[in-house]
Amino acid sequence: MEFTLLESVGENPETISTLEQLTEIAEQARTRLSQLSTLHLRIAEVQPTVSADLLKLMNEAISNIENRIPALERSLEEIKLDWRLK
Description:
By secondary structure, this protein is mainly α. It is built from three helices and no strands. It has helices at residues 2-8, 13-45, 52-83. Helix 2 (13-45) packs antiparallel against helix 3. It is elongated, with a radius of gyration of 18 Å. The relative contact order is 0.16. The model has no long low-confidence stretch (mean pLDDT 95).
């Protein structure tokens, strides 16, 4: 979406905050996926027995991601609408 915005409108004072928003959304997604990957690796290392605490951390991470996705998707939809992007 960032590329599409830059390609169609360019980088200018009006698009700077939207481009920053897109960067933040991408960073949030990367951070959460990184946390999930780290937990997944830790679980793989301790197989076949995984502690309840580690499973709890994984469930909490999944829950946090699931709860955050709708807000991130809505932010992206609003940007698409604001800039008439496809």
